[in-house]
Amino acid sequence: MLQSKSFVKKTKQGRVIKVVREHYLRDDIYCGALSCNVCDTSAARLSSSASTILIVDTNVVLNQIDLLENPAIDDVVVLSVVLEEVRNKNLAVYNRVKALCTNSLRKFFVFSNEHHRDTYVKEMVGESPNDRNDRAIRVAARWYQSHLGGSTQVLLVTNDKENKRKAIEEGLSAETVESYVKSLGQPNLLDLVALPTSEDVGLAEVEDLRPSKRKVIYSEHKPMSEITSGLLRGIYHQGKLRINRYNPFEAYVGSESIGDEIVVHGRANMNRAFDGDIVAVELLPQDQWHEEKSSIIADDEDDEEEDVRLVPSSADDAPRNTNLVQPAAASTASTSSRPAGRVVGIIKRNWHSYCGSLEPMPMPAGNGGIAHALFVSKDRRIPKIRIQTRQLGNLLDKRIVVAVDSWDCLSRYPSGHYVRTIGEIGDRDTESEVLLIENDINSRPFSAQVLACLPPLPWTLSSEDLANPKREDLRNVRVFSVDPPGCKDIDDALHCTSLPNDIADVTNFVLPGTPLDDEASQRGTSVYLVERRIDMLPKPLTEDICSLCSDVERLAFSVVWEMTPEAEIIYTRYTKSVIKSCAALSYVEAQARMDDSRLMDPLTTDLRNLNSLAKVMRHRRIERGALTLASAEVKFQIDTETHDPLDIGMYQIREANQMIEEFMLAANVSVAEKILKHFPLCSLLRRHPTPTKEMLEPLLRTAAAVGLDLDVSSSKALADSLDHAVDDDPYFNKLIRILATRCMTQAVYFCSGDLSPSEYHHYGLAAALYTHFTSPIRRYADVIVHRLLAAALGIAKLPPIFMDGPQLTSIADNLNYRHRNAQMASRASVELHTLIYFRKRPTDTEARIVKIKSNGFIVFIPKFGIEGPVYLMPRGEKGGDWVVDEVHQRVMRTGTNIGYGILQTVRIHMEVVEPQPNRPKLELTLI
Description:
Elements: E1 2-10, E2 16-24, E3 52-56, H1 58-63, H2 65-68, E4 76-79, H3 80-89, H4 91-102, E5 108-111, H5 129-148, E6 153-157, H6 161-169, E7 173-175, H7 177-183, H8 203-209, H9 224-233, E8 236-243, E9 250-255, E10 260-265, H10 266-270, E11 278-283, E12 341-348, E13 353-360, E14 371-377, E15 385-389, H11 392-395, E16 398-406, E17 415-424, H12 428-438, H13 448-451, H14 463-467, E18 471-473, E19 479-483, E20 492-494, E21 500-504, H15 515-523, E22 527-528, E23 533-534, H16 539-545, E24 553-563, E25 569-586, H17 587-595, H18 602-624, E26 634-638, E27 645-650, H19 655-678, E28 684-687, H20 693-705, H21 715-723, H22 732-742, E29 748-751, H23 780-792, H24 805-838, E30 843-853, E31 856-861, E32 866-871, E33 882-885, E34 890-893, E35 899-901, E36 905-913, E37 921-926
Parallel strand pairs: 3-4, 3-6, 4-5, 6-7, 18-25, 19-25
Antiparallel strand pairs: 1-2, 8-9, 8-11, 9-10, 11-12, 13-14, 13-16, 14-15, 16-17, 20-21, 21-24, 22-23, 24-25, 26-27, 28-29, 30-31, 30-36, 31-32, 33-34, 34-35, 36-37
Helix pairs in contact: 3-4, 12-24, 18-19, 19-23
């Protein structure tokens, strides 16, 4: 059956055209119930013994996904009209419900009501799309009720008052989410129910959760119509809110409309915005743009002290922390050039699930075991969340996951609901899972569909691989790899006769559009924690089929250079190849070979020749202006049985590391040039934007205070200045380089068609073009680049996705997001294992001051690669003000000669303490 709908449409050029849309209707779409006597049940997903089948509306799926994912909820029909609406409103929830509908262990069935002859409904004159969809849901529920007869109850679950009323009037069974869950007789399941909003039924329950003092605490958010108008007129400015990780009362909104970051001081001015929300900001008067230079160190214990007042209208009403010493310089400080503002509306929420623990609140008498509690996230940027629970006693010593439902302007805290328990607080595995959830890292096992894409093991080269005319046989070439100790995912190898740089040919196995490819594109990158690695691809690929192990034949993608002894590239070619590595060396082993003058074997000679070339390449790169920066990388020695840290120290960089780095950089640059030449609009490249003057200001201030004159006019000028930043102290130069690293922008992936060539530049490497090609086992960006290179060489066709600009941009955005999250997860893992290590090892050691604050300073501990705050005053102590001297970067005690300066060495005591329940931290105190 064919339904046609025609309408007229005006094009951008002003022409009026007639559009005819055809909608095909069928009568052979099955209901999915095993108990059905009419439909084909071969593809049925609803259980034969189901006494009740649930039909859920769009808002139930959007708001109650945590409940739906619980195994107690099954035999659910998800209508196609609901699925489509969910996809348009929240892609993350859509992916979660799709996973439920494809999970063979769950009884969820997608019914195509929009294409069934008996359930399709036309839009009525004057009917809104929302009302039409609600009517379609009721029609489908009525069809199920008639289709299944009286053998199975069909229950429409909705929190929409009007939809429920109409359903009951039409003879349908309808219940709210809460009443249905109560009927299941599992009280703890009620904890998963998201609180209804004021538009839904059950408003009284929301009122119970709000504070008894019904004062207006926050400003009402402006309606979207007013926000849109204000953005157009330049009254408001749009951007993503980023909350300071070390001071949750300070946030920044990057605004393209004013070309600068807007500073938002205090929770009142944040006005219920969460980190990552897209917000509309109103600038405050310029005399309220407060200086930030002498800001304080905010403490974990200060969260409760920072209160909000009644409807703040300016920064003067922003919260102040009375228990922390305010900088004396603040009263005389000039206004800052950085604009300050306040949030007036939320354009797009970034709410998701959060990990933490509960603070118990007094249990109300006679309330059916329901306790109200405040949830404290491990992420300090997240405010406390008010939840209700029936299992308070079981949750107080647990790490749990909580989701946010709403945040009323009358409530100091947002309201949310319990999602699940992770494990015991303090347990290493529990805390490791917490950091993965916090950083949105997918650590789930690979699905059967993904694993089905892999070739069977044991895998060996086939005769077809060897006979392939597009693949060069390099098995007779002396190839070897140099990687970190214990590395199993070896994806690059070198050879020094004609000098190919061989990279694992991952795309031979990861084909576009397959479940394996989809999974890799979502994960984006492998994640390296202290005690384990979370792979982007399944282990059979990473540690066997694609790993360039010694003495086994492997498929590779090679960049072959012909070089002079002065490391000048005369000729470059690219080829798919077959190799057989003769050695898989660690950095330590490679370095030991190069350093041992007694060794003159061919492999060691190759290593020395490569190292000689690498030194020339490195020198030439630095001459061009490439920066040699430094980072505080920490290395743990882990107990193989308990996985607890046995020792901790700074990661040591050897010549062997630098040698491999040079050839990886050279290969990435060569490939970037090749793919961009062939595909100027759809190449995936990597850029490093030049840091702004404001970003470099902390470095310049520190340098000036210690008598250095750094030239930051270009990367070359900065590199030269850093080379001359020397002192009697051997660690001085590394400290300056670490501080310089922190002023840099983040390097990002981008699609070449999205930017002009002048914006492709990589500042840190002083390279006009750069991409990632050398690690396809652990980075999806490299997989994309391998496909581009193969297409440029005529080896394979370019997948259709490269013709879709917006989709390529979306892939690049996801890669940047995943790369950033992987970095944050790695750092959090280091912090966790640092806590575990020092829990039983209080230590005195030397530290260097790297940042001055009005109530203390931030120190860096070279021996352990750790950074943290040192407070000059105990909490709650009165008097004894400290004054920050911005010019000389010192903090001085008023009326005394006691003071501390930037980069000064101080002796500190390190000890793990727990000032708040379940929130241990490494405390650094001045000796």
